[in-house]
Inverse folding.
């Protein structure tokens, strides 16, 4: 089962969709098992990085949305 | 038959009058359409005099008809009535006047009027003036609304008030025109033309309250219809009430059933528009918020999976595995050691059984030279040789003082 080890591209460059997709793949492989201990740890660390990146994307989106909403509140007041 | 005259040989008046009469007669009897503007019928006179005016142009002609003919009309001729006359133009030399001698007068009754309108509609339709493709869309928000209506009329008030209520910032350019009677058609056309030229006006409304078919007749006039067809600015026709359909309705770009309806068509309702914009903004936000929430839920689900949320579970599984393996290793090792121990014990027993130790313990000793060889015979052993003696519990080092040979035995016996 010569699967490539965890993705190597820097997490920051990944788009949200790419990061999310890789995260789903990491979880799938971890749950499928059959990876060496070394690989599982590497996969897990990669998973953490990807999850944080996705979270940052979502927080950014929410901030921009809230900013637009606040922008309105000020106008309405 | 051109008449040769010259200053030298002028023609007498009577000759000219007769010539004119001759030319006039050549026109022959014609059917003429017009509007009766004046009727003079004096008792005792055999002929009735009428003035017949053109529907559009400011041109009239006198019509004479026999009193009997005049009285035989089913509906009395009233001023303003439209009639169709079969008459022969004739010139009266004595007074030098021309008048049409009516032989037959037909009332342009309602049925006939509508029939004529229908024929005119078909004629204009055939020319393609009412083609749907010619209809221009109204501007969503006009810079200035042109309005052709009667001064101080209900129609004017309806259009202005309703439009202003819907869009307070609307600006009007009102061109007044008679909306009734003989003058109306020409004035309306002139008003439309003026508004059409006005740079800011980008829609023209022609508004008039309800009226009878005759009242609305000017708005089915061919000249007016052609004029409207030729305008560059879109025209909204708001004549009469819902059922009324003058030809103007067909040629206009948009037909409004009433002046109030026209106001609704030319300006959007500001409150509707604002509500629309607000609604669009809300939907926009809801869509994005919904998307972010869905993605967040997806991410949370992923992160809560044991593989990520609790990495110890990974290592833990391994630890258990290792512990299990270790335990099994130990167990199997233990067994093996036990077996080995038994084996060793067994071997030792056998070794012991074979080993001379017991013999030594029974008092025997083994004599070895310096090289460790066992001396089984005195031969070769000299006095003073260093030897070592193995006894049960150790070894004695000695040097020989002398050797006694036993008498030779015959069988060469040996012991192990």
């Amino acid at each position: 089962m010569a699967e490539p080890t965890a993705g190597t591209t820097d997490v920051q460059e990944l788009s949200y969709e790419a990061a999310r997709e890789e995260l789903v793949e990491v979880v799938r492989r971890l749950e499928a098992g059959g990876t060496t201990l070394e690989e599982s740890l590497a996969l897990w660390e990669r998973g953490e990085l990807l999850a944080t990146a996705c979270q940052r994307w979502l927080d950014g989106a929410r901030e921009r949305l809230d900013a637009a909403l606040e922008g309105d509140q000020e106008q309405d007041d | 038959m051109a008449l040769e005259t010259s200053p030298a040989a002028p023609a007498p008046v009577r000759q000219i009058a007769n010539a004119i009469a001759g030319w006039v007669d050549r026109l022959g009897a014609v059917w003429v359409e017009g509007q009766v503007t004046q009727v003079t019928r004096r008792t005792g006179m055999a002929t009735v005099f009428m003035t017949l005016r053109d529907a559009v142009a400011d041109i009239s002609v006198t019509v004479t008809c026999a009193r009997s003919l005049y009285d035989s009309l089913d509906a009395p001729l009233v001023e303003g009535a439209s009639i169709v006359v079969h008459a022969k133009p004739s010139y009266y030399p004595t007074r030098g006047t021309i008048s049409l001698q009516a032989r037959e007068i037909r009332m342009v009754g309602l049925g006939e009027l509508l029939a004529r309108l229908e024929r005119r509609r078909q004629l204009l339709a055939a020319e393609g003036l009412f083609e749907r493709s010619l209809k221009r869309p109204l501007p969503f928000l006009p810079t200035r609304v042109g309005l052709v209506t009667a001064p101080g009329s209900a129609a004017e008030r309806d259009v202005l008030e309703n439009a202003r209520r819907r869009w307070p910032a609307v600006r009007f350019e009102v061109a007044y025109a008679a909306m009734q009677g003989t003058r109306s058609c020409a004035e309306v056309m002139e008003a439309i033309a003026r508004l059409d030229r006005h740079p800011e006006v980008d829609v023209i409304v022609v508004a008039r309250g309800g009226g009878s078919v005759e009242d609305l007749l000017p708005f089915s006039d061919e000249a007016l219809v052609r004029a409207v067809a030729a305008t560059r600015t879109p025209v909204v026709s708001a004549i009469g009430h819902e059922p009324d359909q003058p030809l103007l309705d067909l040629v206009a770009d948009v037909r409004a059933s009433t002046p109030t309806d026209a106001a609704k068509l030319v300006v959007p309702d500001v409150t509707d528009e604002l509500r629309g914009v607000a609604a669009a903004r809300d939907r926009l936000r809801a869509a994005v918020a919904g998307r972010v929430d869905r993605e967040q839920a997806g991410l949370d689900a992923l992160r809560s999976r044991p593989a990520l949320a609790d990495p110890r579970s990974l290592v833990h599984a391994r630890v258990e595995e290792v512990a299990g393996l270790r335990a099994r290793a130990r167990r199997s090792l233990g067994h093996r050691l036990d077996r080995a121990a038994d084996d060793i014990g067994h071997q030792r027993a056998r070794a012991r059984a074979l080993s001379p130790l017991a013999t030594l313990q029974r008092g025997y000793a083994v004599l070895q030279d310096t090289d460790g060889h066992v001396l089984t015979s005195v031969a070769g052993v000299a006095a003073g040789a260093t030897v070592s003696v193995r006894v049960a519990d150790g070894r004695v080092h000695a040097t020989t003082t002398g050797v006694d040979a036993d008498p030779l035995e015959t069988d060469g016996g040996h012991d192990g």
Remarks:
- The two ends of chain A are 63 Å apart (CA to CA).
